Every structure is written in structure tokens, then in C-alpha cells.
Amino acid sequence: MSDSNFKDLYQKRLKRRGEEASTVRKVVAIVLTTLLVVFIGGGIAGYLYIKASLEPVDPNAEEEITVEIPLGSSTSSIASILEENDLIKNDVIFRFYTKFKNESDFQAGEYQFTQAMSIDQLIESLKTGKVIREPLFRVTVPEGRKITQIAETFAKSKQTDFTAKEFMKKADDPAYIEKLIKQYPQLLTEEIQSPEIRHPLEGYLFASTYDFYDENPSIETIIESMLTRTQKNVKPYLSELENLSISNVHEVITMASLLENEAPTAEDRKKIAGVFYNRMEEEMPLQTDPTVLYALGKHKDRVLHEDLEVESPYNTYQIKGLPVGPISNFNKNSLEAAVRPKESDNLYFVADGDGNVYYSTNYDDHLKKKKKHIDSQR
Predict the structure, then answer these.
(1) Average model confidence (pLDDT) for the chain?
(2) Chain-centre distance of CA 286, in angstroms?
(3) For residues 30 and 11, what is the distance between their CA atoms, to the nearest angstrom?
(4) Are 143 and 207 in contact (CB under 8 A)?
(5) How far lies 276's CA from each of 162, 246, 280, 329, 369, in Å?
(6) What angle do CA 23, 28, 30 make, to 5 degrees?
(7) Phi, psi (5° rounding) for residue 351?
(8) I want to staple 337 with a disulfide (CB 3.0 to 4.6 A). Which of 104, 239, 273, 290 is the partner?
(9) Which positions does the site annotation Important for catalytic activity cover (predicted)?
(10) E strand or H helix that includes residue 333
(11) CA-CA-CA-CA torsion for 146, 149, 151, 154, nearest 10 degrees?
(12) DSSP letters of 226-258?
């Protein structure tokens, strides 16, 4: 090979190596740039996520959530409790945040928090053992109350300036009901819009104590606070509906309202629920007196035979199965009884004036117990 040819080949190799090196540098530059962008982007995303996790779950929330912090609870277990009750967005962030700020010495006890509280407010409350926000007024709605009675309860409060009639007008407003169905899809269904339903929200305003933090809260605020409480209590039982002969929330709430009005104790409510389900399986009418009174629209100390003839989709002497809707609100143990009835072969029951309930598997035995415990006392 001549010197000139060797020189040309050498120069070509140098040029190729230079091009390869340039390509490698470009690839390395692209990779480093990509990694830098990913790192910066990840850092920004991480910062935004942490920032969002430190903010209140719902800045507009007013309902109080009762939380029990057991004695000796670690920061980790407290974080888990707060997350389970939807008071914080992320328990890991809470743990790191308290560690970063060197917060400790949290107090055991029962707390009432709201989703409007920030992590700093929750920490301060847990350290002092005190509730951050104090309600302006408190209203207790007992179980077994009809929505018209609930309207009267709030209308009579010195902290409200609406009448019971105005409360009911809003509660029965079709447009408002449509809005609520969208707002509470797990609780409210189209069944409450049936033209046979007397009041769409009957039975759905949970029996409980409610704290309010605004002067003169609106009717909407009150109703939605109560629906939120109902949804919270109903939600844990939704997965169990498939085991029942009734299959939706409306029917469960209707059943709970009947049990609330039939027996005073949690145990009897479970037993009566078993009786009702047995009768439904046998296609027997439930024949429960509280539905007759609701159909009549008035209270009576004693249901007469002629009362049983009233034609109404609520009267369980005239229809088979459940009434068209609930007849009142209910206690939590009535709801539990509706979902977890006590199994038996009983098809009948009768209650005396002292609250004792007697059960029977057949009609003849039922008549004997009725004669002994009811008729003989009159």
C-alpha cells in the first residue's frame, strides 16, 4: 500500500471515529437531559402531591367525625386511624410530617374532628386533647322521627330562621331531590321519586346529634349534613345486601324504619327482621301496625280493625312485601337488624304493653299468645 493510500485510509478512520464520538456525546446528552427532566418533573409532582396531602380533605365539611385514640397509640397507628376515618389523605405523609416537625406526645381519648381541619390543626388537637372548633349550636334528632317532626325540631331552634313548612318545601322539591340523587349516588336512588312516596327523604335523615358551625345554617346545609351521616352509617353494609331477599338501599332503609317502630331492643329488632323476611319468602303480608298509622297520617294509641282497611302503598295489611318507602328515621341497630336478621322459623310475633315480644311459628300458637298477653290485659 502506497503512502498516499495509507494516509487516506487513516484519515477516513479518524473521521469515522470522530462521527461515532459525536453521536455518543449526543446520545449521552439526550439521556442526561431526559433524566434531568424526569428528575425535575418527579420532584415537582412529588412536591405537589405532598402539599395536597397536607391540606384538609374537605375544606367545606361541617359534620363532626368521632375518633377514638387508644391509650399507648403510636404515631403510625394514629395516622392509620385518621386515614380510615377520611380525616387525612395519606397516613405515610402524616407520619413523615410529624417526624419532620418533631411532633409527639399525642393524647389518648375520644375526639371529634371534621374533614375541614388541616394536618396542623389535627396535630395541635391531638397534643392538647381538645377539639379545635366549637359548634355554635347542637341539635339532637331522635330515632323513629318522621321528616315532618324533624322539620319542626329545626324550625323551633333559636339558631334557625325558617319554618317547618319551608323546610318541607325544600325537602320535597323535585329539582333539589334530583341534585341530591347525583350527590349521594350510593344512598339515594330513583325509588324515592315514585309518585306514591309521600316524602322523598322520609327515613333518610339519620337519627343523631348534629353540630353546626355557622349562624343560621341553611335548610340545604342541614339536610345534607344528615344525609352524609346516613350514608356513612349505611355504606359499611352495602356489601352484605346480596345475601338478603331485598336487594337495594331503599328497601334496607325501609326495613330499618319498620324495625325501629316495632321493637325497643336491638335483639328483638333482629328477631322481628327474621320474621319479616320469613313472611316475605312465604309471600305473606307483613301486617305491621306502624305502617297503618303512617298510611292514616296520624298517631293513635290503638289500631282498630277498620284502620287496617285503609288503601295505601304503605299499609302492609293490604300489600305484600315492604311498603313503598320508609315510615321514619331509625337507630343504627335497626339498620344492622335489617341487614343481619336473626334466623328462625317464626312467622308471627306480638308485643305487649311492657315491650315484651312473643314469637310463634304458626297461627294457632300466635292466637294463644295474643289472647294471653294482649287481650287479657285490656
Answers:
(1) 86
(2) 28
(3) 29
(4) yes
(5) 40, 11, 6, 18, 18
(6) 95
(7) -115, 135
(8) 273
(9) 262
(10) helix 332-339
(11) -130
(12) HHHHHHHHHGGGGGGGGGSS--SHHHHHHHHHH
Give the H or E element holding residue 210: strand 208-212
- State which H helix or E strand residue 121 sits in: helix 119-128
- Asked whether the CA dihedral 127, 132, 135, 139 is positive or negative, the reply is negative
E strand or H helix that includes residue 275: helix 266-281
Specify whether the CB–CB gap between 111 and 125 falls below 8 A. Answer: yes
The predicted pLDDT at position 285 comes to: 96
Residue type, 136: L
C-alpha torsion sign, points 367, 372, 377, 378: positive
Helix, coil or strand: residue 192: helix
C-alpha cell at 74: 403510636
Q: 295: how many CB neighbours lie within 10 A of its CB?
A: 22
- Which single residue is written with the C-alpha cell 349505611? 234
Q: What pLDDT digit, counting tens, does each position of 182-239 carry?
A: 999 999 999 999 999 999 999 999 999 888 877 889 999 999 999 999 998 999 898 8
Q: Specify the residue for cell string 349516588.
A: 185
Q: How many CB atoms lie within 10 A of CB 130?
A: 12
Burial class (CB in 10 A: 0-12, 13-18, 19+), 40: exposed
Give the residues across from 138 on adjacent strands: 211
Measured between alpha carbons, how far is 286 from 293 in angstroms, rounded to an integer?
Answer: 14
Closest by Cα among 135, 141, 146, 174 to 156:
141
How many Å from the N-terminal Cα to the C-terminal Cα in the chain? 133
In sequence order, the 6+-apart residues with CB closer than 8 A to the CB of 4 are none
Residue that has been written with the C-alpha cell 306480638 in this structure = 350
Query: Cα separation of 80 and 85, whole Å?
Result: 9
C-alpha cell at 132: 379545635
pTM, rounded to two decimals:
0.69
pLDDT (tens digit per residue) in 103-132: 878 888 778 888 888 888 888 888 887 655
Residues 302 and 289 sit within 8 Å (Cβ to Cβ): no
Q: What is the model's pLDDT at position 243? A: 77
